[in-house]
Recover the amino acids of this structure.
């Protein structure tokens, strides 16, 4: 149930809104050389270039699922999501 919302994956939407995605050597892609995520609720300086709607996914949870992992956008930059597979 993961969806990555990174500047590279939403480059077209950012460009259509008047922004750009920078790819500086040794750094992660950033919106207008600033923000490393492509969705944000209250970033006033980049608000016009970003998607403001949250990504909502629904799934049925049954007795076979015993854990739910909620993380912020930065965790997967330093840890690979497969580390959570034992859970």
């Amino acid at each position: 149930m993961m969806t990555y919302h990174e500047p590279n994956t939403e480059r077209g939407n950012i460009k259509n809104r008047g922004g750009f995605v920078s790819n500086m050597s040794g750094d992660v892609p950033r919106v207008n050389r600033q923000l490393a995520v492509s969705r944000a609720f209250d970033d006033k300086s980049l608000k016009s270039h970003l998607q403001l709607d949250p990504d909502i996914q629904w799934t049925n949870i049954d007795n076979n699922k015993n854990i739910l992992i909620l993380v912020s956008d930065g965790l997967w930059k330093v840890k690979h999501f497969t580390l959570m597979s034992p859970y």
Q: What stands out?
A: Residues 1-87 form one domain.
